[in-house]
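Troubleshooting: if your tokenizer reports a length mismatch, compare your output against this known-good record of 95 residues.
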Amino acid sequence: MDTALSYVAVALMLGSPLVTNEDSRAPEMPIGVACMKEDGTIVMALFTEGPILAHARFIYAPNHPDYERMVTHLKGIKPGEKKPVAPFTDKNKES
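Known-good structure output:
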């Protein structure tokens, strides 16, 4: 993976200012969309629009270590469903 893309991917997941306060969208605006495939795999397409334009795609199979954390972050998701992805911030950070 390209170094710049790696940085953006990590920043998106950690709630960096790239996707919260310095982003051109309000903090409550979604940072992407998630869908669950029929096999339970979660696919997240995330983006920023602030000073750095970036897109990232994350795939979480049911056996992924962060799978349940993503389900919780999405406030639940079912096969075939699509949901907006809220920014990853300290206020909604799961343990």
